[in-house]
Write a structure and sequence with these properties.
The complex is a heterodimer of chains A (193) and B (659). Chain A has 193 residues and is of the alpha+beta class. Chain A has helices at residues 4-15, 54-63, 77-98, 101-131, 167-189; strands at residues 25-31, 34-42, 47-49, 152-156, 159-165. In chain A, helix 1 packs antiparallel against helix 5 (167-189) and helix 3 (77-98) packs antiparallel against helix 4. The two termini of chain A are 12 Å apart. In chain B, 52% of the residues are buried. Classes of the chains: A alpha+beta (193), B mainly beta (659). Chain A binds chain B through residues 51-53, 56-57, 60, 64, 138-139, and chain B through 519-520, 522, 554-555, 579-582, 603, 629-630, 633.
Chain lengths: 193, 659
Amino acid sequence: MKSLPRLLMFIAALSLLGLFAFPMWSITLYAPQYPDGVTMYIWINKLSGSTEGTLQNINILNHYVGMKMIEPESIPELKYFPYVIYAMVALGLLVAIINKKNLFLVWTILLVVLCTVGIYDFYLWEYDYGHNLSADAPISIPGMAYQPPLIGRKILLNFTADSWPYIGGAFVAVSMLAGFLAWWLRRRMAPQA
Amino acid sequence: MKSSFLLKTIGGFALLLALSIFLSGCGKPTGTGGALSGDAASQVYVAPGQYDEFYMFASGGFSGQIGVYGLPSGRLLRVIPIFSVDPEKGYGYNEETKPMLNTSFGFVPWDDAHHPELSQTDGQTDGRWIFINGNNTPRIARVDLSTFETAEIIEIPNSGGNHSSPFTTENTEYVVAGTRFSVPYPQKDVAINTYAENFKGTLSFISVDKNTGRMDVAFQVLLPAFDYDLAHSGKGNSHGWTFFTSYNTEQSSTLMEVNASKNDKDYIAAVNWKKAEEYIKAGKGHDIPANYAHNVYDESTHMATSTMKKTVKVLIPSECPGLVYFLPTPKSPHGVDVDPTGEYIVGSGKLAADLTVHSFSKMQAAIEKKAFDGEVDGVPIIKYEEVVGGVVSKPGLGPLHTEFDGKGYGYTTFFISSEVVKWKLGTWEVVDRQPTFYSVGHLCIPGGDSKNPDGKYLIALNKITKDRYLPTGPELTQSAQLYDISGDKMKMILDFPTIGEPHYAQAIPASRIVERSKKFYKIEENKHPYRALGEKETKVERKGNDVHVYMTTIRSHFAPDNIEGIKVGDKVYFHVTNLEQDWDVPHGFAVQGATNAELLIMPGQTETLLWEPKREGVFPFYCTDFCSALHQEMQGYVRVSAANSSTPLKWGLNVKDPS
């Protein structure tokens, strides 16, 4: 019982590795011609789709309205975000070894801040793809932007777009909860100790 | 008095006349209308967006193709080009598939395709491949059911009409090919009336590789010159045997309708192919010079190659005791059908009053005790009484084919009396009969020639349509009728038109195919020598008068879409790679002045159209398959200059330079 907070801190640190096993976010487009939807998965280090051709198919659809090609090579975050996560895992393990209550909290707050920055960065990318349209677009509708929702559902012309956190995102949530719980339990235990 | 008699007489005549007019108005005898019971419509109704329960593959007969239908709706889903060119799909017109139709006679753009046969594993249809015979230029084709494309065609040497074919063994060890028309062996210039001495009939066994499906003529059995009509392989206890019907045991070669119909009994040839394998192993096969084409389509290069094979192994029955026996069977038997247990072999003597059923166990006992009635060319003839297992007495006129429901019943078609008759195996009693419209040939029960039939539906494949549909001039469609056979009595529930002339058809539960069905070809697996795996790889190369255009398609443009520097007299090869990686996004390619056809390129595929410009000018090309919102804009131009001009070779996409 006494070692539970520390165990939770280990869990918090290691959960982040789930980001390398599962996508953290998914965006699904539905249209009459795509009854099963076209799903793009956003990982910490790459983009993938429900089929191998998904990214190409999304790009084909997007080019009609002048959106830029989504090219994983041109998104630097996919290269350095993994290092941020590795650092957080290492830091988390260190914190667990040091086993100091306040460090649990500091680490958790740092994680929340990083996540907020990450989501804001995601929003900026979405904004850029949705608004920065080519003047040569075959289909041009004045006033129309194609920014997918940050979270939830939005109708964009003939498409319904769904954007939701995915399994990898759940691992981050687990990580935050475990880190917070580790701090909170240790604090409750502290007077008796 | 007199006048009243006259009045009565006239009145009587008038009444008689009126009555006869009324009677003549009654028209045809009743029972030919095929009235449907009230719930038939709901039984065959497949709601929009829903799938059918079965696939049915019906031969196109003289169309040379296979029509794929859904059951119970009867909806046509696809036509698979096999032995005949198909400009719609570019089959036989594009450079990749031309070799598929190569034969020892050269390029043959047509055939008469009769019997689709699904591959089986342990006697059950497995949904991997479907085979079909080409009758006129003896061939067997294999269609891959993950793509519904013809994957392989092999020509059959020493054959003159490949009718008793392909009819698989229970693990698709072999498909078979018996010659319907015996021909001189080896083929040579002889008088036709030397038929009996110079002609021979061959029964070929084509091995099928169990992993790749690759076919090879493993051996041929050389038999007397009869007409070998149909076949079926044994199953269960009779696995290892294949049965072929014959007619014209009279060995006539003219006015066959009379001269080949004289003998009381013809033969079913029972071939022990496991024994044949032993004889081949023992070196009894003669390597006979031959010349036949073997054409294989490679799914990774998206190209077919044709190779000529030069020998074939032949087994001669007189040198191979126990290889073949003849089972006497009344009156020119047509179909030979083996029941799901493998015990009963139904021989439909098409001119006989009764239906003859041989017993496999009796046949083996007869062979054991040598109950023979002489022999022909070294083939023992088993005594009729020693092999017959039962007779269905006076079931109808003109029996042709039998399939089974797996519940102990056989269903036989009768061409002349135009009906399907249900009878019980073992007791041989007729339990039901239903008319067909008209003159039924083959019938199909899903899995009806396998060990494991799905006895839910029966489809009658009719030869004559007459008044069944809206008239379309002298030539009418063929018809199929669907019967519900789940109850004691057969019930007709649907009547639908079919393409070409369907001879045989086979059906299979959809689930055995749906999950194997490919959605597109992976672009990174494309090994076509002229592929362009991205727009950066597109180019135009000149080699003398040959110009190779490496072109790509993606919604909604060609790359390149402007080409200059082509000259009159050039041979221009448009190698078009479809870069799409999505289901149901083919692109088409057509160019003005092409004298062949279009290309229809599936996602991930490369296809080639040969274009030989005859005049100077600028000619458009465009996408023929409505691919996207900007399909109409998917077009380009190719400039053709005089043969001696110095127009430089140039190509591009989004060309801004006005020079």
